[in-house]
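SUBJECT: protein chain
CONTENTS: sequence, structure tokens:
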Amino acid sequence: MVSASLKIAIPALCDKPIINYVSALQNLGAEPVRIDASAKASSFDGLLLPGGGDVAPLRYGQENDGSRGIDPELDALQFAAADAFISAGKPVFGICRGLQLLNVFFGGTLVQDLPSAASHSSGIVGTDLYHDSSAAENSFLASVYGFSFRINSSHHQAVDRPGKGLQVVQYSHDGVVEALSHETLPVWCVQWHPERLCGRFATDRAVDGSLVLDWFLNKCR
């Protein structure tokens, strides 16, 4: 467990959408802090980009073709935070929307509405699906969970073209990208929700999400 002095920034417009992330990080001994545009990367040990609605397709040069829950103000806040923390060399971890945002940040594109969305989203907020996945050899996820493990799922979009410098390090059973890591920068992200696989959300239907969150926190030391 990490020291309570480890401060992790979470860019969000209000507290409610990030309650589960805050709880998961606090349970691991970290100090999560919701930040706005005035926050300085130098004041924190790392950045967590949380789940949420879809990134505006104009950010990756497309018209809307199935994206929903778009919030330009949130996009602006989180893209700016990603830029500030990555420029400062701080560790960054993205979850679900966070993965998609980081992929776009590095110049990648997204599938706006997966043909197999029914296998990845129940369509009910707060209700996850569970499925098998495979991690790449020598990836950060393989070091935590091994090469094959079950995860939760609640997304209708996915990585199409990976951004510059990003490597695909996990796939779902149907070939959808489930995790990325950067070749040279301390940037990692998952399409699934580890914050909903630990604490009161722990389940025998998937892995313990606290393990990968703790792995990230150790990178923030």
